[in-house]
């Protein structure tokens, strides 16, 4: 079920804040452990049979751990691996984003994700959903095969192509932004056409008005309008996983 987004009176693009702070292991309600060779923030009942894997954007954002805690409270075992290997992108630090991406290819991260998936399954998990944010959406869409996960959510994706969407084998939802030069609404509409044509795979695309790229995890917590938009996307994601990760 999709929720209608209420139009905000002002553009929340100004509310998006790129967080690039290194997060301490004690930040959040969970803890950090080695999972499949990666330092991973985990939370949720170790007895749960259902898991959600969160793949971050290029930043190390506190809001992602907050989201992991929220998903864990809904009954999932949640894992947030450090696919950035302790090296998140830091703007204006002498390295361009393009150079950073050369050192952090999504294909490498996809390979890193495979042992993480196996480690999660070794805990007795029987179903896994994966959500990818921006850079992480490329890894999530590569994982959207039956042998890896049972459902995927791509939030303001980067690097995801129409051909990627054509290859998904599990239910896939795409949550995009009205103002997004990386994945503009025109591209998201093409994703929607592909998903609609895939009768064997459920999927949908939802474009949130009055928000910009990164709005689901990079926002100012004191901005109630921005938080509301992010929380609506979080709720849509949770509903998708509740429907298909079981």
From TrEMBL:
Domain of life: Eukaryota
GO terms, molecular function: hydrolase activity
Ranges where the Dienelactone hydrolase domain occurs: 40-244
SUPFAM superfamilies assigned: alpha/beta-Hydrolases (SSF53474)
Protein name: Dienelactone hydrolase domain-containing protein
Upper lineage: Eukaryota, Viridiplantae, Streptophyta, Embryophyta, Tracheophyta
